[in-house]
Structures are given as structure tokens and as C-alpha cells.
Please model this.
Amino acid sequence: MDRASLVIGYRVRGKCDRSRYHGSEMKNTARILNGIEIAAEIKAEVAAEVRALQAEGITPGLVVVLVGHVAASEIYVRSKVKTSAESITTDEMLALIADLNARDEVDGILIQLPLPGHVDTRRLLEAVSPEKDVDGFHPINAGRLQSGRPALAPCTPAGILEILRRSKLPIAGQHAVVLGRSDIVGKPAAMMLLNAHATVTVCHSKTVDIGRYTRDADILVAAIGRPGFVTAEMVKPGATLIDVGINRLTDAAEVERFFPGDAERAAQLARRGSTLVGDIHPAAFALSGAFTPVPGGVGALTIAMLMHNTVQAAKARRGGRGKA
Ligand code: NAP
Model:
């Protein structure tokens, strides 16, 4: 397995600080949906499931395939892990995936995206066995999700649903507006909300007058990759705001525009050269009923959901056939 990367440690950084979102002069009751706490809850549950599986002689195994240099990744690999060369071909990767598909001890296969341009990403994603597709990107899993059947679901939207459910926020009967229609976030998030009985509207770059839809949203999921796109005027007071966007700000004037007078953000910019903002303008959070901060919201859930999917994949494929 010289070209794959065997797993894996993970780490979620950052903590939620209420004062960063709620100015002292601003009276509000918006609830912060703390992704780090919810992720910790899920990880503890996953750890208990792993222990139960290990008692049966089954150790869930996840393989992450990294090609070339991966800059920003939430996944921290152990030193024995190797990454494949940038020059790897589609055929070589297909052979690697076939090998991983055949290995019984491998329960989950994750191909770290984006892949270099010369590699046929779609073909590779479709080559992963659907029962090991812990990213939930295989058309079989997308189809299962669409028809409401059990499936390995994409981690980020699955994390969104966990945040809503574990925070006891209503979904059924709510108007959920999803901004973005990517295969990774927007579309599966919309499908999961629909399966949970929300009335769903999906907006994208060709939608005319997005505010018309967002102002009616009880649950607003923003996943477009545009810093602070959703302004306070676009939000229904009391709505639940789920901010998936991860946008890096490197300019001091920009940071001041999004986080006026926020000394901690300014210090972060000075220290690290950047700070993060979501797709929802921080000023909109104060009007909401509940919101996910950036960082420390949706992003914190993704790895926990990956671990969850890996254990589900192990149980579905190997459960009940451990030590006799
Ligand atoms: P993507 O593949 O680039 O898709 C962006 C979507 O937003 C597209 O559907 C696009 O519409 C739409 N869009 C772009 N500009 C728009 C605008 N001005 N108005 C309305 N819609 C617009 O992005 P993605 O992978 O879904 O990611 C979206 C954001 O979520 C990014 O900031 C990404 O970093 C973040 N993300 C976070 C996590 C996490 O763990 N928190 C995970 C994945 C992604 P068209 O379809 O019409 O082009």
C-alpha cells in the first residue's frame, strides 16, 4: 500500500467565543450552535461503537488517498503515511482503488479532492466500492440518499443534519433554503432536509433575487464560498443560520469590514496572516435564532461524520462475522 495513506489522526482546532459574534451593545438571544461540542459527542459515540466492534475482532479501517501535496487539510496523517506522487496516472490510481476495494480490513476509502487536473476524478470516485464510499460521493449512494434508503451520506451535509437534530431544532415543516448546489454540499444537504420533511428551496448562481428566498427561510444553509454574501437584510429574524462557507480573509480592511472593532480577529490576522469568515455576514447572526460560527461550526463536524461513516461501513460489511 505504498501509494495510499493509512489513517490517521485528526484534530479540530478553535473554540467558540460568544463575544466575537455578539457585540456588547447588541441585545440578542441568538444561540451559538457549537460544532466542536457536537463533534465531540459524535466522536465519543463512534469510539464506543469501535470498542464494541473490536470486541468482535473487527477494527474499522479507513484509507485516505492523497495525491501530491495537500496544503490545507483537516486530516493529520501519521509519519509512516506516504503520499502518492503528483505524476500518478488515472490507471495507476484505478489499480490502487481496486486493491483497496478487495482488502477486507479496509472499510472506508476517501480520495482527497481536488486531484491534479490530469487525473479523471469522476472515474476514480465511481471506482470506489459503494460500500466503502465513506465520502458518499458514489452515484449509488447519491441515488440511495435521493430515494430515502440507507446510504453512506456526504459528511458535511450529514454534519449539518446532526447539528440541527442534536440541537433539537425543528426541521419537519420548516422552509429550508439552501444556497449552493454542489454535489458535495448543496444538493445532498437539500436532499437530506427534504428527507427530514422540510420544504426545500435551492438557490444558485443563476437564481434571480436570492434575498426573496432567504428572507423566507426558517433554516438557511449557505454553501457558496462567497465571504459574507448573506447580509442581515437577507435573513428572517429568528431563523436558524447554517454557515458552511470557509473563506480566508487576508486584508486588514476586509477583516474590519466583517468584524468591526474585533481585536481578536485583528490579532489573528497579524499572527497568522489570515482569518476565516463564512458565507453569512457576521452581522446577520445577531438576528438569528441560532447559528453556526465560522470556525467552530459545520467544519468541526466533517471529520466526526467521516469516522461515523467508516464505522457504519464496517458494521454493514463485516458486522456479525468477527470472532466466533
Ligand atoms: P462549489 O462546488 O464551488 O459550489 C458553489 C455553489 O455555490 C455552486 O452551486 C454555485 O452555483 C453557487 N454560487 C456561487 N456563487 C454564487 C452566488 N454569488 N450566488 C448564488 N450561488 C452562488 O463549492 P462547495 O464545495 O459546495 O463549497 C461551498 C463552500 O463551502 C466553500 O466555501 C467551501 O470552502 C465550503 N465547504 C466547507 C466544508 C466544511 O466542512 N465546512 C466542506 C465543504 C465545503 P452554480 O452551481 O450555479 O455555479
Summary: The CA atoms of residues 228 and 281 lie 4 Å apart. Residues 35-55 form the longest helix (21 residues). The chain is about 35% helix and 15% strand.
